[in-house]
Structure formats: structure tokens, C-alpha cells
Amino acid sequence: MICWINPFTGLAGDMLLAALLAAGAPIEPVRAAIAATGLTGWELTTERVSDHGLAATRVHVRVTDHAAERRAAELIALASAAVPQPVAARAVAALRAIAEVEARIHGTDPASVHLHELGGHDTIVDVVGVAAAMHALGVDDVVCAPLPLGTGRVRSAHGLIPAPAPATLALLTGAAVIGTDIPGETVTPTGAALLRALNTRFDPVPAMTVRATGYGAGTRALPDRPNVVAVTLGERLRGGGDGDGEVVTVLETNLDDVTGEVLGHVIARSLEAGALDAWATPAVMKKGRPGHVLHLLARPQDCDALQELLFAETGTLGVRRGTVDRTVLPRWFETVHIDGVPVSVKHGPHGAKPEHDDLVAAAGRLGLPLRAVAERAMRLSSGSAA
């Protein structure tokens, strides 16, 4: 599912959450994901509003614990407990991005950075809530129109600072932005961090079949226009020929200090964790050392979890990401039986092939050569010309 974000007047975490709920995200999984963090003293509700004649959804977070400041490490620890795991990974990625830019701006360590305006319940609810809503909707590709940035000044815990806030500008590195005549803060750090954690692309409206649109209202009242962000959900249009096109991500890391056994283990683990494909290519590293480049092909919503797996399993210090277009041909499966042993056969538009693991199991049970089992499977398959 594609999610196209149109930040008409800007973007904040609560506006994006509201728009996703308006577009059809169920609220109960969102509440459950937030509750799993262990955060207490909050209630998430929605209301329908009309802003300059446009019907929209606004979210409210009512709290009984009014602590407004926390260390970033506390927020990250809470978010890491969200369920399911892909929701936690996205939420943690957004909060880590905030912590890192705040640490750079104030010259402190990310682990100890103290969040003032962003340390309250709202931040956890918005970040985990958006991640949970995206997961519930099955969004795997996020595209955003250019973000309108206002100017002027905003008040912070450190006094008056320029708008956009320094943290927001740092988080928007690589994003597409335009100017607006709306004064003050139009994009919040939380909104910017969520776009980064969602691996957002800043491209024209993608080719898709529109399924739903939702409008999320902000709390600020503008004199001449609705203060809303629009979210449109759609399914990809079929690509050329018989294939379906999709945008996926390639994760890569250079490895010159892992054994072949570890490399094979990481490839297997990556596939189990949701990678669409995983492979390694030999390479010559610095100082002439032999090594490998490990590649993972993944959908955007799985990238953060797979990146963490690469860090943990290989000890690498860096992972690259790149976006590629993939055309996927239709396929279907049938099961044939060789002397009572099932073997799955994958069919595509241009041929068929038995599943290797099934062939190995059948060959072992029947005491036959692997090649002979494969030939029998193909003869029994409906794809055989015999």
C-alpha cells in the first residue's frame, strides 16, 4: 500500500496520526501499541471537526501525568516495548533521529540528551501511534509532497529561536521543502523525524489506484485556510507487461572480518526476518583484504528491523540504503506428490521450478538422487509440456 502525504499547511505528529485514522487506520491497534510501551496516565481520542468547511479528524491526548520533560533514552526505552516489532523499530528510529540532532545542536551525547518540549506523553503517542497506524494499513511506501516551511520565531525552553527550529531543519536534511506565507512553525521536529523513520520519498504523486483519503487537523487556527494534512492511500498500478512494479530498499554493508559460516547465518536470518532477498558478493577491501558486500532487498517498513539485525549479527559499523524499482511477475504454487511425498512447484509466466528444500526432503525420504526427484516433480507438474 502506498501512502501519499500532502502537507497542505505543514506537518506535525498529531496531524499525521489523525489523517491516518481518518483514512481508515483502526484506532484499537494504535492504542494497543502505545499501551505496550508501559506509558501510563494517557487517553487517546478523536473528534470530527470542520476547518474552513473541510471535514477533518483531530486527535486528543488527555493525560493525568503531566511530566513534560524526559531524557531521550527514556522515550526510546518506552518505544522499544511497542508491539508488534516493526512498530517499535519505526518508533525507535524516529526518536533516535530526534536524540541525535538535539545532541549535535547542544553538544551533548545522544544517550543523555534531555528533551524539553518533546519529552511529554504527546511525543510517544504520536510516534508510536503513527508507526502502528502505518503498520495496520499495510503501508510499505511513503511519498510526500514538498513541505511548506514558515519563518519568524518560536518560543522554546531555551528562549526564542528561529523558525524553522534548528532540530527540524537538521531532521529535514534531504527532504524537499518550499516556502510559505504562514508565519512560525509549520513542520515540527516530531513530524520531520517520522518522515525520516518512514523512509519517505519526496517525489511527484505516485502511480496508484486511490483507495482512501483522510484529513488530519492541527490545533492551530489559520485565518484563511484549513490547517490540515491530507493522506491518500492507494494500490500500485500494474507496471509494463505482466509484472507489478514496487519501490523497495537495498541495504548494504561491507564485511571483511566475518567467517563464511556467519555470512550464511546472517543471510538465513535476514530472509526469516522479512528480507525479500539476501545475497553476498566478493570484494577486495582496503589494504587488499578479501571481503564481501552483503546485500538485503527489503520493503521500506522492514528496513529498520533488518538494519538492527545486521548491526547485531555482523558487528558492522555502517549500513547503506538505496531505493530501487522492482518489477514482480505473478506466480502461483502447486503441490505434486512423489510416491506420497509432497513437493511444492513454483510457476511463473515463463516456466516452473520445484522448491529446493522440498526436493532435498523428498530425496532423503525416498532414497533417490536429487536430480531424479526434480525430474519427476516437473513431469507431474501441470506446467510440464509432457
What does the oligomeric state look like here? Answer: single chain
Q: How much of the sequence is in beta strands?
A: 25-35%
User: Strand sequence of the main sheet, in spatial order?
Assistant: 6-1-12-11
Amount of helix: 25-40%
| Element string (H = helix, E = strand) | EHHEEEHHEHEEEEHEHEEEHEEHEEEEHH
Q: Pairing-aware structural class of the strands and helices?
A: alpha+beta
Largest beta sheet, briefly? 4 strands, mixed
Tally of individual helices:
11
Q: How many strand segments? A: 19
- Mean pLDDT comes to 88
Which ranges are low-confidence, i.e. pLDDT below 50, for 5 or more consecutive residues?
none
Describe the structure.
The chain has helices at about 15-20, 25-35, 70-80, 85-105, 120-135, 165-170, 190-195, 260-270, 305-315, 355-365, 370-380; strands spanning about 1-5, 40-50, 55-65, 70, 115, 140-145, 145-150, 150-155, 160-165, 175-180, 210-215, 230-235, 245-255, 275-285, 290-300, 320-330, 330-340, 340-350, 350-355. With about 375 residues, it is of the alpha+beta class. The strands form seven sheets. It has a four-stranded mixed β-sheet with strand order 6-1-12-11. The chain has a four-stranded antiparallel β-sheet with strand order 14-15-13-16, covered by helices on one side. The chain is globular and about 75 Å long. The mean pLDDT is about 90.
Features:
386 residues; 4-stranded antiparallel beta sheet; 11 helices; alpha+beta; globular
The gist of it:
This protein has 386 residues and is an alpha+beta fold.
